[in-house]
Design goal:
Length: about 1200
């Protein structure tokens, strides 16, 4: 009994992925020309005659010398000597070639040639034995990457070894024509023949036959069965079940039941039939059935029909001690036959049983992705079986997407071509209804089902809508799902930054790891033991409708080109998909898109642009039908798998061995035939949803997740409670900043410790300016006690900041309808600059445009606060609808600037382009460095929580009393008049420093009340020190003054003339004469008596010529004891100030009390009129404005009508 369980899936590989064979030597070896034989030539006649002549001549010369006697010269002996030497040279052997040296040189050449030929022979042997190993060693291929390495399209498909014999050298020795043999050196020629005979033949080399060339193969002889088993063993180890299908007729082949190739032979590309010891008559149908690629007749006999056809139409072999082939010339010895014993075949078959292809259970429909990824049923996809690990496997990023019309799986290899892949980048074009979206989903499902999040991450982009990748955001592999980009331009910019940032991050990771060149080397180093390296998975970016994306945002082409250029080393893969492809839209991308997928296109031109041919345009209107092209010549037709339909489940309990505790005897693959197994379609889910759920479960169990490069976009709103935290002294967390390039969202921190602590917000209407200011105040209050910060709030906008008055940190809030309180806040904050306190004070101004329009007189004080406040721990927070509303004098002092959505993007001081893309949502804006931000909202509950946990409240804003009596004034130098100024202290007129005082105001503003208060103060000086001359044409003070203090009283013009004349005479008499000494001038003691206070109420009723005599006395007023106390209505004051009398008074820099006055009059004594309630005015001394004050009343005085 044997339990069979299929648990090993062998993925098909391309020819480029196969383990390369040792290189085969190329070319030929060429021997040098054989040297010619050595033969002595005939002696020339001249050489024979010359010695005779020379001997005769020499003898004659000797004879003459002897006969000449003793008188002969000794020089005569030289000539015979020369002749003798010449004779010796002529008879010396002629100089010629050394035959032995020539032979030694040639033999050395042959030795080198022999060594080179033997080296080539060894390399040829290694190459051939790699391709055709010994059948006895086939078991060693099981479980290795060489198992089933050949495909149906490979050149060596069905090429098998049948034995070993002598074969020619792949680089044969070429012998040049050296001429006739008799003319060659015999030693060299014989050596060359022996060398060539020895090296041109390689003994013991595999003898192979291509079975596709022979439909019939006959094997006879005693070793026929062993040779047939060796052939089958090679076929089933080198080819997968989808390539070779095997069937047997006859006995003795029970062992083939273990082979996966016998399970569904009808689906294989090549079918082989083994006929063993069967007598055939010629009527057997399989003899002429074209489905059989090769029929192997084991124990072939020439007397049978099959044996005869093997000899006549096929290839007939005889296997005994020698392997012989039947040829027309007779029997030809090929070598020694291969043998594989039956026991060895059984071991090999059982070892192969547990292996199968991913599509071994498919029916060829091309729509069952479950089987294409190696699963018999979806239930086999469990946390224990998922993601076995492909980082170092040749199957990394190799996934099925469908099948050919013949049912052969079509796999997309996203690796780059250097690693045997089709990628790394590709293009997919398909018209509406072509199944493009379904193909993209199929690709994603295939990837996530076979690769873990540590091996693969996904970025899924859909420019229009989000239906393509709906539900895939839950995958643990998903780094980003970006949809609806067409509706929000800011998301497009955000995606650009996110992808650019990921490219930069990967480069930084490689640099930090030690300047590693690419991710492949990085992964190898990590798996080799570098625990400090985190996984760096491949990133697959799928962009749907990229053509429309480039049309709306052409700059994205540069990003895609950058991905195409850097993606190879960074393992970033790009797949661009669209319904149509416009000419020129790729803009340089074309060279980076190495594989192309063409579904049915709208036009033939689009098909030609994508695939180079028009075939995609002529595809049937069937979703998923398409072509895949990854090189110039390879165009594969396929039908994409379907993952969005109801999930198909099989009743696996019907399979043998699947029942609980059931064991069955294995008799053949018929036991596992699933054709009749019931299939149930689960309408409640899809394959996509199931894979997503199981991937998520597996990732959770293993603690795996993708690196997030795309955080959710900024929400519509966030609450302050979600971001507020203590981030340091005078710093506040007020929102979040979106940093897609750095793949994070940081807290928006407003750090007011730098730049003077001033901050400004600019934004159009309804963009959240007031809410932002309230959030800043609330965040500071939440993290700082009342002993550290204090706020004064000018709510000049829509009233949003009024609720801040609940905070104990807020000293006061004023809105635009309470101008007095507004000014009072400015006065009090100004006083804090003059008298600093330990705590920081913030003046919050919401609506600077209202200040510039309705409170123009406050612009200068606030500007001074911006300039001088930081040194006194006084800071400014303001909002404005436009930056241009802020004067440069104050804008340049504000370093912290935040921009919300502006009404006119061109007004931006930060980034005009980014302003255009800002969504019109409250709180959305730009930081000073151009980052997108969202400012949080603060609710009433937040303010209540802050109030409940704060300390003692800060001192409240001091306001002027509505009514004040002179008795309530604190004693002070001079004549007390009012309470006011920055610190609400008693304000007094000191005649010693300011001899004159003027009060200007409208009807009912309180001029007469002020004058009565001044008169009461003068009265307190006593008659010895002061006397009053009163001109009161309206008789407002008649009977109210102390008679003892009044030197003269005038109520009419005639009386006024007399009174003024007397006063002028008295004062003129006090002018120093020529006899007054300098000491007297310094002591002012040349006259005695009280100082004269000239009180004129309603100065506008007194004729100017009556006052003219006083003009000459005004420069000497301090010396003669003259003090003017003038009250006049504001109407016409602009003209009056240029009169002779008022001009002279103004030249004396009098103290001024400006009550309620018309703004149309312009500045009065340098003070801009503002609306004031009765009795309220602005006090100025010697040109310096002290502040707003409340005038005290004298008990019993009725004031102005």
């Amino acid at each position: 009994m044997l339990g069979v369980h299929l648990d090993r899936v062998v993925e098909p590989i391309s020819s480029a992925e196969r383990e390369p064979a040792p290189p085969l030597p190329q070319g030929t070896l060429t021997a040098e020309t054989v040297p010619p034989a050595h033969r002595p030539g005939p002696l020339p006649l001249i050489r024979i005659l010359m010695p005779v002549v020379m001997i005769a001549g020499m003898a004659a010369m000797v004879g003459l010398m002897m006969l000449g006697g003793a008188g002969a010269s000794p020089m005569m002996l030289i000539f015979p000597l020369m002749m003798g030497m010449s004779l010796l040279m002529m008879f010396s052997p002629p100089a010629g070639e050394d035959v032995d040296e020539t032979r030694r040189t040639y033999l050395r050449h042959l030795g080198a040639l022999r060594e080179k030929a033997l080296d080539h022979a060894e390399r040829q042997r290694a190459h051939e034995f790699h391709r055709h190993p010994d059948p006895a060693e086939l078991w060693s291929r099981v479980g290795t990457r060489r198992l089933w390495e050949r495909g149906a399209q490979d050149a060596d498909a069905l090429e098998v070894r049948i034995g070993i014999g002598d074969t020619g050298l792949c680089t044969p020795v070429q012998v040049p024509d050296s001429g006739a043999p008799e003319d060659l050196d015999p030693v060299c020629a014989v050596s060359l023949r022996r060398t060539v005979r020895a090296v041109n033949t390689c003994p013991g080399m595999p003898v192979a036959v291509q079975l596709q060339a022979f439909r019939f193969l006959g094997i006879s002889g005693p070793g026929a069965a062993d040779l047939a088993r060796a052939i089958v063993g090679q076929l089933v180890t080198a080819h997968g079940p989808e390539t070779i299908g095997l069937e047997v007729i006859g006995q003795g082949w029970d062992w083939v039941k273990w082979l996966p190739h016998t399970r569904a032979p009808e689906t294989a590309a090549f079918r082989v039939l083994i006929v063993d010891s069967v007598t055939t008559t010629g009527t057997e149908p399989y003899l002429d059935d074209p489905v059989w690629t090769t029929i192997i007749d084991v124990g072939s006999r020439s007397t049978t029909a099959l044996g005869m056809r093997c000899e006549q139409e096929g290839f007939a072999l005889s296997a005994d001690d020698e392997l012989r082939a039947h040829t027309a010339a007779g029997m030809e010895v090929l070598g020694r036959p291969d043998r594989l014993r039956e026991e060895e075949a059984v071991i090999l078959g059982r070892a192969l049983t547990r292996f199968r292809r991913p599509d071994s259970t498919t029916s060829g429909t091309g729509k069952d992705l479950t089987s294409l990824i190696g699963l018999a049923d979806i239930e086999q996809l469990t946390p224990e079986t998922m993601w076995p690990g492909r980082e170092q496997s040749r199957q990394r990023l190799v996934v099925p997407i469908g099948t050919t019309p013949q049912g052969v799986p079509v796999r997309l290899d996203l690796k780059e071509s250097a690693h045997g892949g089709m990628g790394p980048h590709g293009l997919c074009i398909g018209a509406t209804g072509s199944g493009k979206s379904e193909l993209l989903r199929t690709l994603v499902v295939s990837l996530v089902a076979t690769h873990s999040p540590e091996e693969l991450n996904l970025v899924l982009v859909d420019f229009k809508g989000g239906a393509t990748f709906l539900g895939l955001e839950a995958l643990p592999h998903t780094s980003a799902v970006i949809t609806n980009l067409a509706d929000e331009a800011v998301l497009v910019e955000r995606m650009f930054d996110a992808i650019s940032g990921e490219l930069n991050r990967r480069q930084e990771v490689l640099r930090a790891a030690g300047n590693i060149a690419n991710v492949t080397d990085y992964t190898a180093a990590r798996l080799a033991g570098r625990d400090d390296l985190e996984p760096l998975p491949a990133l697959v970016i799928v962009v749907d409708e990229f053509s429309e994306l480039l049309a709306a945002h052409p700059d994205f082409a540069d990003l895609f080109v950058a991905v195409g250029r850097l993606g190879r080393s960074l393992h970033v893969h790009l797949l661009l998909a669209s319904q149509r492809l416009e000419e020129g839209r790729l803009r340089g991308l074309d060279s980076h898109l190495s594989y192309r997928i063409g579904l049915k296109t709208f036009s033939a031109a689009e098909s030609r642009q994508v695939l180079g041919v028009t075939d995609a345009h002529h595809l049937p209107a069937q979703p998923g039908a398409g072509y895949l092209r990854h090189d110039a010549d390879d165009l594969t037709r396929f039908q994409a798998a379907y993952v969005s339909g109801p999930l198909a489940r099989r009743d696996v309990s019907a399979l043998p061995g699947e029942g609980a505790g059931r064991v069955a005897l294995f008799t053949g693959w018929d036991q596992f035939d699933v054709a009749d197994t019931p299939t149930v379609y689960d309408e409640s889910t899809t394959l996509l949803d199931t894979v997503v759920d199981r991937a998520r479960t597996t990732a959770q169990a293993r603690g795996l997740h993708a690196h997030r490069i795309w955080l959710p976009p900024l929400p519509a709103a966030i609450e302050l409670s979600g971001v507020a935290e203590d981030v340091g002294e005078l710093a506040a967390a007020i929102g979040i900043i979106d940093r897609p390039y750095h793949q994070r969202q940081d807290p928006l921190i407003l750090d007011l410790t730098a730049g003077g602590g001033h901050a400004a917000l600019c934004g159009g209407p309804q963009t959240g300016k007031s809410t932002a200011l309230r959030t800043i105040v609330a965040s500071l209050a939440a993290t700082h006690g009342t002993d550290r910060v204090r706020f004064y709030v000018l709510d000049l906008g829509g009233g949003t900041l009024g609720t801040l008055d609940r905070l104990p940190h807020v000293a006061g809030v004023a809105d635009r309808h309470d101008p007095e309180r507004v000014r009072r806040i400015i006065d009090e904050v100004t006083g804090l600059v003059e008298s600093p306190e330990p705590r920081h004070t913030f003046l919050v101004v919401d609506g600077w445009h209202a200040v510039a329009g309705d409170f123009e007189e406050l612009v200068e004080p606030i500007t001074r606060l911006a300039a001088d406040g930081p040194s006194a721990r006084v800071h400014l927070l303001l909002s404005t609808p436009r930056w241009t509303v802020l004067r440069p004098a104050i804008r340049d002092l504000i370093t912290h600037r935040l921009e919300l959505k502006l009404g006119e993007p061109m007004d931006s001081l930060i980034d005009r382009k980014a302003q255009q893309k800002l969504p019109g949502l409250p709180g959305r804006g730009l930081t000073a460095d151009g980052g997108h931000m969202l400012i949080a909202r603060s609710s009433h509950q937040d303010l209540a929580h802050i109030s409940a946990n704060a300390g003692d409240p800060v001192p409240r804003l001091k306001v002027l009393p509505a009514h004040l009596t002179s008795a309530e004034l604190a004693p002070t130098a001079g004549i007390p008049l009012a309470v006011g100024g920055p610190r609400l202290e008693t304000l007094a007129w000191d005649p010693a420093t300011s001899p004159h005082v003027v009060c200007i105001g409208g009807q009912g503003a309180g001029k007469s009340t002020w004058l009565a208060t001044v008169a009461a103060g003068i009265t307190s000086l006593g008659p010895e020190a002061a006397r009053m001359v009163v001109i009161d044409h309206r008789r407002a003070h008649l009977g109210t003054l102390d008679e003892s203090m009044v030197a003269a009283y005038s109520a009419t013009s005639a009386a006024t003339q007399t009174v003024l004349a007397d006063a002028v005479a008295t004062l003129t008499a006090r002018l120093p004469g020529p006899d007054i000494t300098p000491a007297q001038l310094a002591a002012r003691n040349w006259w005695s008596g009280p100082e004269i206070y000239l009180l004129i109420d309603d100065l506008d009723l007194v004729a100017d010529h009556l006052l003219h005599p006083l003009v000459d006395l005004l420069p000497h007023a301090r010396d003669i004891g003259l003090h003017l106390v003038l009250a006049r209505k504001s109407g016409g004051i602009g003209r009056a100030l240029f009169g002779a009398f008022f001009s002279a008074v103004r030249d004396q820099s009098p103290a001024v009390m400006l009550l309620d006055a018309d703004r149309d009059e312009g500045a009065i004594f340098g003070i801009k009129p503002v609306p004031q309630p009765p009795g309220r005015g602005t006090w100025q001394v010697r040109g310096e404005t002290v502040g707003v004050c409340q005038i005290a009343t004298v008990p019993g005085d009725g004031g102005d009508a």
